[in-house]
Protein 1
Amino acid sequence: MISKPRCFLDLLELQKILDDKVSKPRENGFTPRSREELDILLSVDDEIQEWCRELPSELNFKTWKQKEYNREKELEELTDILFFFLQYFNYHWMILERLGNEVDRNYFNDKLVELTTTFDKPIQVGCKFKTKLYSLKHCIWSDKMAEAFKVYLDIALTRGFNTNDLLETYWKKWQKNMKRINSDWVIQE
């Protein structure tokens, strides 16, 4: 039975269900192409940009545009990033299950244990927000996704959100996304 996530491993399982459903042909006949690592990295990066647009004016990169800050919208966009981190980790686990050797699988399994611990007890680093944002982007494009995930959680804490906020918002958005697959993720005729 599918239930509300309580931990990082629950999130990975829910993401696996969503990704599986998203990859199947849709009711209108559309068949998504196979997802590749670059697609996921670009999705993470895109979601970061969407989240940055929801930051308060003192942190928002759109210095020319006045916008009312909405904390709930920021949390939703921050959680959207989480969807693609989870997709990335599941994607790599699937590749290792298919092609990897025992050493690779053990290494990745150790990384998942580390990520689970990091999610349960994230650490806040005392540096400027923009330094953290730069570090997040740098890690993503330097093939250091486990490190990027730690920075992501640090940023969430810095912004005043905890893992329970992420779990709650993920669950709400996951349920919504499961319904969107055959509605607003396809061309309606």
Protein 2
Amino acid sequence: MNDSYIYVIIALLPLAACMLVFQVNPYHALVIRGILGAIAALVYTVLGAPDVALTEALVGTMLAITLYAVAVRSSLVMRLGVLKDEEDDNQHFAKLMDEFRTIFGKRYMRLELVTYTNTQSLHRALMEKEVHTICVRPKQSDQNGAVYEDEKQPYHTKTRIQRIYDIMQTELSSPGTILAYVNTLHSGEEHT
């Protein structure tokens, strides 16, 4: 009897494992992990261990893939705090958000906008780690003490995560925002 197909199937295991290790996209890695589990289950079946094959198929492939998918989906989100007024009707803000989505899309991250009603709650959300970054236009005041938002003034974007700050500082080409890193460990110490 010719058993060369067993060697081919077994040779697929290290190949799939290497593909999994060197995969950059976490979603593609999930698919490859499923393929690796299916190959392992097939190998166990061919070698005469159907109970181990069934366990590998159910636990090692289906359950693991489901748990990994939930973990990857929830961990690749950048929460951006914004004021409700800004999100509604501002084309400069929309361009800035498109640039943020492009930057974080390269790293397979989603941008989730979290709206707040006032600037104080926005800053509190950053310090209490409800959001990763905030983006707000600074308020100006005139001689009469009236406060208004200057359309020509760039947005101030503050982040509490050093890696996000480094990514944005390197790749953000828009002059529409001033970037700052806020150290939440030391009571709001700010670095620009």
